[in-house]
Write a structure and sequence with these properties.
Blueprint: E1 21-24, H1 25-34, E2 40-47, E3 52-61, E4 69-79, E5 82-96, E6 102-107, E7 111-112, E8 115-116, E9 120-121, E10 123-126, H2 136-139, H3 144-147
Antiparallel strand pairs: 1-10, 2-3, 3-4, 4-5, 5-6, 6-9, 7-8
């Protein structure tokens, strides 16, 4: 196994979750629905490993009679190259557990090969070179611990 994507020689590195901005579904969606916060809110945070900052404002639009809810993300990314602003709409899926509790999920807004992903996700990720939030599968993200070399116990 050789070439550009060979992991054996350490020449290929996937983007990790730790490098991305993470939109936490559980906290965000509970705050929106349990407090009936149908207006908009603002958060801002930095990603220290990449040096990027994001300012994110969201607004939740309730679906009409059985239609899914929608969350509209307005975000500005500040990095060394300047500022970039964009708007993204994400559908929200609702499931009901056996004990009757409601659970809210993001529906991945990205498309792969022309087909909408639509995967249910607790978190959406924004990799360093992208301008849209998406699920781990669409961006083929991995964890940093999966890329670290295993040191032998006995050497």
């Amino acid at each position: 196994m050789s070439g550009r994507q060979s992991r054996r020689w350490g020449t290929y590195k996937k983007t990790t979750v730790e490098e991305c901005f993470i939109l936490p579904g559980r906290k965000l969606l509970r705050a929106c629905f349990f407090r009936m916060n149908i207006g908009s809110s603002l958060i801002s945070y930095s990603n220290l490993p990449t040096g990027r900052q994001i300012s994110l404002r969201w607004s939740v639009k309730p679906g009409s009679s059985g239609a899914p809810h929608e969350i509209e993300l307005h975000f500005t990314i500040i990095n060394l190259g300047g500022r970039q602003s964009t708007v993204q709409k994400v559908m929200i899926q609702e499931t009901v557990s056996n004990d009757g509790r409601r659970h809210y999920w993001f529906s991945c807004p990205l498309s792969r090969s022309g087909v909408s992903c639509g995967r249910r996700a607790r978190k959406l990720y924004l990799p360093p070179s992208k301008m849209e939030f998406g699920c781990r599968d669409c961006y083929e993200l991995t964890y940093l611990s999966r890329q670290e070399r295993i040191k032998p116990i006995f050497s």
